[in-house]
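Risk mitigation, structural track. In case the binding assays with NAI fail to produce interpretable data, a predicted complex structure has been prepared as a fallback.
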Amino acid sequence: MRLEGKVALVTGGASGIGEATLHKLAREGAQVVVADINDDDARRVAAEIEDVGGSATAVKVDVAVYEQVEAAVQHAVETFGKLDVIFNNAGIAGGKPLLEHDPSVDYEPMIAVDQTGVYYGILAAGRQFVRQGTPGVIISTSSIYGEQAAELAFTYSAAKAAVISFTRSAAYELAGHGIRCVAITPGRVGTPIIQQFDDDLKATFAAEQLRDRLTEPDEIANVVAFLASDEANVINGTVVHVDDGYSV
Ligand code: NAI
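Fallback model:
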């Protein structure tokens, strides 16, 4: 129970990595806020956590709208009295060859969610931690593509690189308030983002990781729970690679 007494908010909590992480954080004793644009599944996840004895609430949020992110943070405070951890994890994937881009379709929406959404999460949670006068942890989901170029990932890579940059700068700016910031870079995780593809493509993705297997969402969740805990107290302003060797 490494997170006993902590309150954690996870964006993109209604599916995949976020959902698995919420279950893990709750098992570690945290009270959790399931924040997602998909309201129905956010409520489902919160109910499933409560069914097994955890403490959870759901809130609808579009991370691309600052007022909604701020309201989600306030929902955490109104429900559980404070906020200790935010996991900025909501994201959308996909991409086209650069020269086929329509900026309003292939650039702006993804930057709004995957990049600006993380900025808003850092800003809203950072402000709340400072208001509370307590230390806080900000974990954000980047990607292997945040550190390297890849086919059909022009916009996604840019947004995920920004997540790493935000994490470094936020750690630098917020350390004086006792706030720690960490980015994670998953490789190929078996969530709906990957499961939508056919078996051949999934096998190709698996083969990109050193042990020829997709990562399970629970395996990412285990790392996030560690990073959220005081055991990770010296991990700050950096990137934790959770890619099973993809990037070696
Ligand atoms: P997922 O599709 O299972 O979950 C993403 C969640 O984000 C969904 O519940 C969705 O409703 C929510 N979401 C989308 N737009 C939103 C918005 N505007 N506001 C609030 N919520 C929104 O995907 P997965 O795989 O769990 O992805 C989680 C994060 O991990 C994403 O940031 C993704 O880019 C990143 N990632 C995933 C990898 C993978 O192989 N699955 C690899 C590297 C990074």
